[in-house]
Specification:
This is DUF8094 domain-containing protein. With 343 residues, the protein is of the alpha+beta class. It contains five helices and 16 strands.
């Protein structure tokens, strides 16, 4: 995946380029979808596959209405949490740019449904889209029902990594067990694996949690972060400029993880993260966002300075093996969308 360059300029001098990703774009490839497994939670499914399809249809109608009208106010009818924040920002960017090129295209055909088995709330269902006609990889969607009187709403999405094999789940007519944040049956509990991943994404391979996870060469999100640090730092220090680059990744506040049991006793966990990166150059060197991207639009014409702070909303889906397994935690998919900028 190629990076989108920020612009570093000196008055009446030059423009330099380097990359900051604004969204994940994977080449199309065949993904293996979850295979139904007879084992299921004792409570039974919280909704049927037909009901989930109707939920998805209502969600897609709301997304289409918001895109066609440009009115983000209708989104909260069928979006919540990080999905609502990201889509609201994307529609704002589309309005500022005068086109919707940077709005995520969520496919409306599905190859797999993961139905929750639960008698409590909130509840979470998952769906896997078909690959897009533009050869983008399928996406994994998470939908939350906050209470018995609330409809299911889109909570988050990730784009599946190339060639990924998703774990197996219980058949929709049986339902898959939802996992509590502190569930101790996994190699790492859902809440702890979320926190460890955020720390690992920030600290890199030197993190004490690194042995629990696959390598950063296999994990495309962490690979991007590592390569981006090197590239941005090199650019900011070009010609002795002595600029600096830093970033941090943290759990999105007040946003619990979403976790469901896999057929092998492990779990699939979706996590919402916030990333902030700071680029600072010496006086006289301007650091500007890349042309035609979200950061440029969100600055709304403000003149560049020698400092740029970009905020991103990131979502990752992880496979966590069962307790006692010798496997590592693996990335299933991720998304990375710029939602703020300041100077």
């Amino acid at each position: 995946m190629t990076a989108h360059p920020f612009r570093r300029t000196r008055p009446a001098a030059r423009t330099a380029a380097l990359g900051v990703l604004a969204a994940l774009a994977l080449a199309g490839c065949a993904e293996d979808v979850p295979t139904p497994n007879p084992d299921a939670a004792a409570t039974g499914p919280a909704l049927s596959a037909d009901q989930e399809n109707r939920v998805l249809e209502a969600m897609n109608t709301t997304l289409a209405q918001a895109s066609e009208s440009g009115d983000a106010g209708v989104l909260d009818q069928r979006l919540t949490g990080p999905a609502l924040a990201v889509r609201t920002s994307q529609l704002r960017v589309a309005q500022l740019r005068g086109n919707a090129d940077l709005v995520t295209n969520l496919q409306t055909e599905y190859q797999a449904l993961i139905v929750p088995a639960s008698d409590t709330w909130p509840r979470t269902a998952f769906a896997v889209t078909e690959a897009g006609e533009d050869l983008q990889a399928p996406r994994l969607l998470a939908l939350e029902q906050a209470s018995a009187r609330e409809p299911y709403k889109l909570w988050g999405w990730v784009q599946l990594r190339p060639g990924v094999t998703l774990p197996s789940f219980a058949a929709p007519e049986l339902g898959s067990e939802e996992l509590a944040p502190d569930d101790a049956s996994l190699l790492v509990s859902p809440q702890d694996v979320a926190g460890q991943y955020a720390e690992l994404a920030t600290s890199g391979d030197e993190s004490p949690f690194a042995p629990t996870f696959e390598s950063s060469d296999e994990d495309l999100f962490r690979k991007f972060l590592k390569e981006n640090v090197q590239a941005q730092t090199q650019e900011l220090q070009k010609d002795g400029a002595n600029g600096s680059y830093s970033y941090s990744v943290a759990l999105t506040p007040d946003t619990p993880v979403k976790a469901v049991r896999t057929a092998d006793g492990g779990g699939m966990v979706m996590v919402s993260l916030d990333m902030v990166e700071t680029m600072e150059a010496p006086a006289g060197v301007k650091v500007a966002p890349p042309e035609g991207r979200s950061g440029e639009a969100l600055l709304e014409g403000a003149a560049p300075t020698n400092k740029l702070v970009n905020g991103y909303s990131d979502m990752v889906a992880l496979y966590v093996p069962p307790q006692g397994s010798d496997q590592t935690v693996k990335l299933l998919g991720w998304t990375h969308v710029q939602t703020s900028v300041s100077q």
